[in-house]
Design goal:
The complex is a heterodimer of chains A (164) and B (291). Chain A is α+β, with helices and mostly antiparallel strands and 164 residues long. Chain A folds into two domains: 5-80, Ubiquitin-like (UB roll) (Roll); 89-159, [2Fe-2S]-binding domain (DNA polymerase, domain 1, Orthogonal Bundle), CATH 1.10.150. Chain A has helices at 26-33, 89-96, 106-119, 125-131, 142-159; strands spanning 5-11, 14-20, 52-55, 58-61, 74-76. A five-stranded mixed sheet of chain A has the order 2-1-5-3-4, sandwiched between helices. In chain A, helix 2 (89-96) crosses helix 5. Chain B has 291 residues and is of the alpha+beta class. Chain B has three domains: 7-53, Uridine Diphospho-n-acetylenolpyruvylglucosamine Reductase, domain 2, CATH 3.30.43.10; 63-173, 2-Layer Sandwich (Uridine Diphospho-n-acetylenolpyruvylglucosamine Reductase, domain 3); 179-288, 2-Layer Sandwich (Enolase-like, domain 1). In chain B, strands 4-5-10-6-7 form a five-stranded antiparallel sheet. The mean pLDDT of chain B is 96. In chain B, helix 11 (240-252) crosses helix 12. Classes of the chains: A alpha+beta (164), B alpha+beta (291). Chain A binds chain B through residues 1-2, 5, 21-23, 25, 28, 44-46, 49, 52, 55, 58-61, 63-66, 68-69, 112, 115-116, 119-120, 129-131, 133-135, and chain B through 1-8, 10, 31, 34-35, 38-39, 41-43, 51, 53, 55, 79, 83, 102-106, 108-109, 189-191.
Amino acid sequence: MSKTRDITVTVNGTVHEAAVEPRLLLADFLRHTLGLTGTHVGCEHGVCGACTILLDGDSARSCLMFAVQADGRRIETVESLGRIGKLNALQEAFHEHHALQCGFCTPGMLMTATDLPKKYPLASDDDIRKGLSGNLCRCTGYQHIVKAIRAVVGKAKDASGDTS
Amino acid sequence: MKPALFDYVAATSIDMAVAALAAAGGEAKILAGGQSLVPMLNFRLLRPSVLVDINRIAGLAYIEEDADKIRIGALTRHFQLETSPLIAKYFPVVSAAMAHVAHLAIRNRGTIGGSLSHADPAAELPILALLLDAEFHVVSASGKRIVAARDFFHDALTVDLAGDELLTEIVLPKLPPRTGFGFEEVARRHGDFALAAAAVTLTISNGAISAARIALGGVGPTALRAGGAEALLIGHALDDALTLSAVAAVRAVLNPETDLHASADYRRHLAGVLAGRALAAAWQRANTGAA
């Protein structure tokens, strides 16, 4: 009934070709087909945010998309940000500010926090909290996550010379 | 959970999409942003035999201006609506309300056509469509038709769309000069569905209200207009007494349900409070010229 489709997807800069069932969720494609287990799957209905990835640069829930829909598109997962020994600035800030406890929500938090400053000024910590409202941390470590993002957003402003 | 098997059609034109819908004989679902549909597929609350993906139809995402209206393509994402200068200019109530719609990752994907076709009783876009007297352009293999927003929403998750029809365009008639708006919503968590929401526009002429619209959501099976309260306002300046009368008239037409999140009484009370605040904001904006 449901034949496979051939797709070509660029994930973290690498072009992947695969034959997928149309019902295969993008999250499961990333984890099981490509072995990129950094993307976590929590609720599978778009509430927890753990599976957040970037689709052509915009944050999206990979549990609410089918892999077949990513044909010809560009995906970034948490693996694109950095690696042990070479974390990016956001990951370093999470490390510095103790912004993770069990770590389950962290990939989604990082990918959301990668997209947020590109779209909103995040002038206040309340803006950061609103921006994170779609990502659940069941360790409830939100304060430290907000601090980590504030540190990066603040640094970014200083670096660009924009002190307004 | 994972979705049941389905056939998948990646439509590249409206004609191709409606042909696939017709061929499925009512057993197909349209996949737009997927932010409501895919959860229902994942839980197997829905098991369509065919998914018609409209994301690859070119020219279905746009916000365009005509002399007397703004036309919005059904595939326009929430984030585009939220940040559109045209929408901010002509319908700031929409810009204000869109910030309440879910979360960035969902606004990046969710579409106006999808939200209106899905018609969650507490979603913002059905409230706005009713408020702004939107008209919906609907296409099927057998033709086109136009549906007024007030005839579109029949019940919770039930709209005036047949299984072979696709909502393609939403038309918002421009508002008269000296129109102010208010939008108020309370949700348990920022971005969650509203416990109650109220949207208002007031147009003033010679110091009195010449046109009033009040729309509410989260307080019944569909979003609704409070026509009785609107009528009370016409010809008067807004003051505390008139606001109280209008709020009472709003509450009188509401029949909310009690659920896990709030009791019916709380929702009715809250909707009145929000309508009162939205009225005050709309009155102030109409008088200061800030549309």
